[in-house]
Write a structure and sequence with these properties.
Blueprint (H helix, E strand, L loop, with lengths): L25 E9 L2 H11 L14 E6 L1 H7 L3 H5 L3 H5 L9 H5 L22 E7 L4 H12 L3 E10 L53 E2 L3 H6 L9 E2 L5 E10 L1 H12 L4 H16 L41 H5 L9 H9 L4 E2 L2 E3 L16 E8 L3 H12 L24 E5 L6 E6 L3 E11 L2 H8 L6 H4 L12
Antiparallel strand pairs: 1-3, 1-4, 2-3, 5-6, 7-10, 7-13, 8-10, 9-10, 11-12
Helix pairs in contact: 1-13, 8-9
Length: 487
């Protein structure tokens, strides 16, 4: 479905949609607040030409930019246009009156927004996210130059440097980023029947329902007519076309707790045997071996030759004897295993896919090692989708945090699930003759910040940079009062 939509307008689409820029090992995420809307619009006007669009070909620095709902408002987008954005984006991830999203996503206890470092109710509202990617030598210079350009237009709320770990690992020691969907029109090779419709990730193109996803619109004006195509209603202008929605969450990983817990579950064994047992248990929790080899293809032992293997299903393993049903990769991407049958399962899964563009931060800590002074490390989780509720939020709530997922009884995702504080969760490993249950699995990953953003097209950014000031009374009720810095 959705495989015959029009060709992608690559020069309009920000490059993050096409690539995580793996050759740029250093990255930084700058969370900014507008201090002076007029200056900020001028800054944005200059920034439009500096950003990266389309598929990266030659190596070099990359920049991308996204805006929160409060950011769109403070730049001058009128209330009617703001109201055309999805409710999820307008509400965001902050706690406010009547908020249910933190509970829905499992942002509770130590992960509650009230404890966040950015994006929470105790921090200034984030308006702009500027993402910079470069080499180890080039990024400090690029960052310094960007900060000089802010002038009195923007102030920095939070800065998160990141660095890709060697050999495509994440901090728990497993190869990451192996199950990325490819979409129609994306450069590169791959089986045509495995392509996901572009409209699942880019607004303005057919999705897996053979429909174009709902797109935000701008009120008609000379500037809108100059930069934006006509919307579906034939009256307003399509502000979303060639854009996407960005989910950003800072996830702190407790590597020492993860491996000490696996050793504890391994039991009283000689040291080397205990380590092998701990790696086996950790791999059962993840669904892949540290090399990346999936348990569905290598159930007994790690096989680095299968590191890149991604064309597999669970048809031969319906009860999870090879890859447990509660394993992280099986919950995040059930493939063919959902009821009522494999065909229906594949269709449902294709309608939930997300593009992950995350990066690790903090120094690596090898498995079974400890540190006297704990250092921050984790993942800047970034994903793209055109329907936040149907894609990201559904995966998080209905699959990862669902104890009853796919016939389970009480299994949380052992890697990123919202385990009950001080109690933990249960993880079941099917075995003959008796299953093995890990009881009291603690929460290894805590949320330290988060927000939803709009990733505009080149034309949409140009339009936004030319907005005229809008009186507060014309904007309608704001989701949050903008916290403007004093310049």
């Amino acid at each position: 479905m959705g495989k015959h939509s029009r060709p992608l307008e690559e020069p309009e689409i920000q490059g993050l949609v096409f690539s995580a820029y793996p050759r740029n090992v250093e990255g930084v995420y700058l969370f900014l607040q507008v201090a002076d809307p007029a200056r900020a619009r001028r800054w944005l006007r200059g920034k439009v030409t500096e950003l990266s669009y389309g598929s990266p070909i030659a190596p070099g620095p990359r920049q991308n930019l996204a805006l929160s709902a409060p950011g769109l408002e403070v730049l001058g987008l009128d209330g009617a246009s703001l109201a055309s954005f999805p409710l999820e984006l307008r509400e965001g991830l902050r706690e406010h009156d009547g908020a249910f999203r933190p509970r829905t996503l499992g942002d509770v206890g130590e992960s509650a927004p009230s404890r966040w470092k950015w994006g929470g109710p105790a921090q200034p509202v984030v308006h702009v996210l500027l993402m910079l990617f470069d080499s180890e030598e080039g990024l400090p210079l690029l960052l310094e130059e960007q900060r000089r350009q802010f002038g009195g237009a923007l102030r920095e709320v939070y800065c998160r440097p990141t660095r890709s770990l060697p050999d495509r690992k994440e901090h728990f020691g497993f190869t990451d980023g192996l199950s990325q969907p490819r979409f129609q029109g994306q450069p590169g090779r791959g089986p045509a029947d495995e392509l996901v419709a572009a409209g699942e990730f880019i607004l303005g193109y057919e999705n897996e329902f053979s429909q174009q996803p709902a797109s935000p619109v701008a009120s008609d004006s000379p500037s809108a007519r100059a930069h934006l195509p006509l919307a579906a209603d034939g009256q307003r202008r399509d502000l979303g076309r060639n854009g996407s929605y960005l989910v950003v969450r800072e996830l702190e990983q407790d590597v020492q707790l993860f491996w000490s817990t696996m050793c504890q579950f391994a039991g009283e064994l000689p040291p080397e045997q205990a380590k092998r047992e701990a790696i086996w248990l950790a791999s059962k929790c993840v669904g892949r071996w540290p090399s990346g080899a999936p348990l569905a293809l290598a159930p007994e032992r790690d096989d680095p030759a299968l590191r890149e293997a991604n064309s597999f299903d669970y048809s031969a393993d319906p009860h999870g004897f090879q890859c447990p049903i509660g394993a992280h990769i099986r919950k995040a991407n059930p493939r063919d295993s959902l009821e009522p049958d494999a065909s229906a399962s594949w269709k449902a899964v294709r309608r939930r896919r997300i593009l992950r563009r995350g990066r690790s931060y903090g120094p690596p800590l090898a498995p079974f090692e400890s540190e006297a002074v704990r250092q921050e490390r984790g993942l800047m989780f970034v994903c793209l989708n055109t329907n936040i509720r149907r894609q990201f939020e559904f995966i998080q709530q209905s699959w990862l945090n669902n104890e009853k997922f796919d016939g389970s009884y009480e299994d949380q995702d052992p890697i990123v699930g919202d385990q009950t504080p001080d109690v933990g969760s249960v993880f079941t490993i099917p075995q003959h003759p008796l299953r093995r249950r890990l009881v009291g699995v603690p929460r290894f990953v805590q949320v330290r910040g988060g927000e939803y953003f709009f990733l505009p097209s080149r034309s949409a950014l140009t339009f936004l940079s030319e907005l005229a000031p809008v009186a507060v009374s014309e904007r309608g009720p704001a989701r949050h009062a903008p916290e403007l810095a004093v310049s």
